[in-house]
Amino acid sequence: MDLSKFPDINMRTQVSITVDTEFTIAGAFRDQAVFPIGEQRVWCLNNDKSDGLGFMLDCFARYGVTATFFVETLNRHYFRHDPMRGIAEKLHTAGHDVQLHLHPCWTVFQHEDWRARARVRTKPSIDAFYGRTEDESVKLMESGLETFHVWGLPAPTVFRAGSLHHDDALYRAQARAGIPYSSHIGVAVFDSGDDNYRLYSGRHERHGVVECPILTFRDWKVAGKTHLKSLTITGSNFAETRMLLEQAHREGVEQVVILTHPFEYVHTSDLQMSRMRRHHINQRRLERLCAFLSENTDRFATDGLSVAAAMPMRAESSRNVLLKGSLRNAVPRMVEQAVYDKYAMWRLKHQQAAPVVDTEALA
Ligand SMILES: [Zn+2]
User: Fold this and answer.
1) Ligand 1 centroid vs 115 CA: distance in angstroms?
2) Can you give the pTM of this predicted structure?
3) Ligand 1 center to residue 19 CA distance, Å?
């Protein structure tokens, strides 16, 4: 196909805001008195207002952004009433891109003695895809595909492994499971040590799967020391993100993948999320990013990662460009973050315990 006839494909940078949508074990493997947390981890209800997913959905709707939600399905081994189903349906109905995320640790709940089993050291470790056999990984992915089928949602075409784990066996397993695209890599989050997976940007075929890594950039370089960072809402302020997006566009990087989670938009003082405050800084960052994208649709598109991943591959698609941040931008962010985190934790300590939230009511 002659792509020069489609300047739109050539020129716009696809920006995929990817949201890992998952419940949490919340320390239940270590502490008898503690149990996993479901919807509250995603909605983050704070005085009857959803400061997590609810905030995000409002923000995306206001600016016409399609986001990609990597929805975790293995939690159904614990949450037998399947609260993730309602969440996935809401995301799909809102027009977002709903894709597959898996954390193998949830499979331990198939066993009555899950606490004892979870404490036994196994290889690979209980939540790891890294080091897992190809056959086992295929089974887990097939269970994820089956869940989407049961939920009545379109079959996922993009898969993201829990904790951004990856190795050759995982890609081979994914090809066998028939899921064509992946976004397993964030070099600054999980580095397998294999240079073949040191992917900073672009799209790259590995074992028959097209990988779309979370953007990793050079945060700063001082006196020969280099600091790499993967692009998240929590980790970079709006000025830094905008600079990277503009650089990506100038350099013809066809897509930028950003990682976030619903719980990044609240502060909590404990794993049980009993006390919570809105995370003003992160909420403002997402708001400003979405506003920027909606004002610059001539340069940036937000069609979701499944669309961006499926664009025809060109020679340039597999360039592995390392974009560069600057210390001038990084320092104000570090200061802002440190001051705000201290303040928010102080406020949490000194406020009354929040009323107990009935998350069942949301299902
Ligand atoms: Zn995850």
Assistant:
1) 21
2) 0.90
3) 9
